[in-house]
Design goal:
The complex is a heterodimer of chains A (112) and B (118). With 112 residues, chain A is mostly beta strands. Chain A is 0% helix and 56% strand. Chain A is built from no helices and eleven strands. In chain A, the strands form two sheets. In chain A, strands 2, 4, 5, 9, 10 and 11 form a six-stranded mixed beta sheet that branches. Chain A has a five-stranded antiparallel beta sheet with strand order 1-3-8-7-6, with no helix packed on it. Chain A starts with a strand and ends with a strand. Helices cover 0% and strands 47% of the residues of chain B. Chain B is built from no helices and eleven strands. In chain B, strands 2, 4, 5, 6, 9, 10 and 11 form a seven-stranded mixed beta sheet that branches. In chain B, a hairpin with a 5-residue loop joins strand 4 and strand 5 (43-51). The radius of gyration of chain B is 14 Å and the shape is globular. The relative contact order of chain B is 0.33. Classes of the chains: A mainly beta (112), B mainly beta (118). The interface between A and B is medium-sized, with 24 and 27 residues.
């Protein structure tokens, strides 16, 4: 079965530091992968998605993610964290029906 | 466009009560979904619909029912509320897939309904 695992339920960085949120997937077929962000008391919003085109995917707010088949990973990065990036981030994989499986989430804290 | 809207924002139910969570979208999306979000568990799909009159179970459908009589609305019904249904519920919608296989389409989420069952 396809699924995603997010390593680290909580990540804390200083403002201006690199953000790295880890996501590994398991899939028997080429996956479609997504990163969503959830700000406090809001619904989820798409950051970026991988749909088998370019392996380096650029999203909104300066985030990007690289699909690495050999490592079964789709880690999310941002070169320089901003206070407004504090939120919860979810990695997700699209299945062969209309089902999308989400990881447990990683809460990002940005310290001034 | 208002996007995906959900009502109510908050609700407290007693065990055994019933209620309907409302969801509406104005983007003319064929596909709609209901998820629940529990702390540290990510989102779990409850039910989904690929169009008016068509619904199907997701990962955690027990204790819930849905209907889809129009493209715009996708209500979620809890018949006999239980403490295990305390959660935050999200409705989402997306465009239909153009072919079989996994969906590449973005899901658009509502702001959520926070439900507590006591």
């Amino acid at each position: 079965a396809q699924s995603v695992t997010q390593l680290g339920s909580h990540v804390s960085v200083s403002e201006g530091a690199l953000v790295l949120l880890r996501c590994n997937y398991s899939s028997s077929v080429p996956p479609y992968l997504f990163w969503y962000v959830q700000y406090p008391n809001q619904g989820l919003q798409l950051l970026l998605k991988y749909t088998s085109a370019a392996t380096l995917v650029k999203g909104i707010n300066g985030f990007e993610a690289e699909f690495k088949k050999s490592e079964t990973s789709f880690h999310l990065t941002k070169p320089s964290a901003h206070m407004s990036d504090a939120a919860e981030y979810f990695c997700a994989v699209s299945l062969n029906n209309n089902d999308m499986r989400f990881g447990a989430g990683t809460r990002l804290t940005v310290k001034p | 466009n208002a996007g995906v809207t959900q009502t109510p924002k908050f609700r407290i139910l007693k065990i055994g009560q019933s209620m309907t969570l409302q969801c509406a979208q104005d983007m003319n999306h064929n596909y709609m979904y209901w998820y629940r979000q529990d702390p540290g568990m990510g989102l779990k799909l409850i039910y989904y619909s690929v169009g008016a009159g068509i619904t199907d179970k997701g990962e955690v459908p027990n204790g819930y029912n849905v209907s889809r009589s129009t493209t715009e609305y996708f209500p979620l019904r809890l018949e006999l509320a239980a403490p295990s249904q305390t959660s935050v519920y999200f409705c989402a919608s997306s465009l239909p897939r153009t072919s079989g296989g996994p969906s590449t389409d973005t899901q658009y989420f509502g702001p959520g309904t926070r439900l507590t069952v006591l």
